[in-house]
Design brief:
Blueprint (H helix, E strand, L loop, with lengths): L18 E2 L4 E9 L4 H12 L4 E7 L4 E6 L5 H11 L2 E5 L2
Antiparallel strand pairs: 1-2, 2-4, 2-5, 3-4
Helix pairs in contact: 1-2
């Protein structure tokens, strides 16, 4: 019998805001305003990628969503400061 109690989809992907059961990492999606192009995505990704514990960042200007994978949950104020440094505004966690 298979245990389906984890928060993974059948293909093994973790849910936003959940824990990736394969690596123990946390994936959180944030809403960021002001991104309009690939350069914007790169600026936000670069700043967030420098935060301690962050292993991956995916920013999508069209939706304003930024998905961050980290070893542990990040302090939202630290994320806000990094997004600010890039020149954009963190609205908060997407939900």
């Amino acid at each position: 019998m298979t245990d389906n109690s984890s928060c993974q989809t059948p293909d093994g992907a973790g849910h936003a805001g959940g824990t990736d059961g394969r690596s123990g990492e946390v994936t959180t999606t944030y809403k960021v305003t002001g991104m309009t192009c690939g350069h914007c995505e790169g600026a936000v990704s670069s700043e967030l990628g420098e935060l301690a514990g962050v292993s991956a960042v995916q920013a999508v200007a069209a939706s304003g969503l930024v998905t961050v994978t980290s070893k542990a949950p990040l302090d939202e104020e630290v994320v806000r400061a990094a997004v600010d440094e890039a020149g954009y505004e963190l609205v908060g966690q997407a939900g």
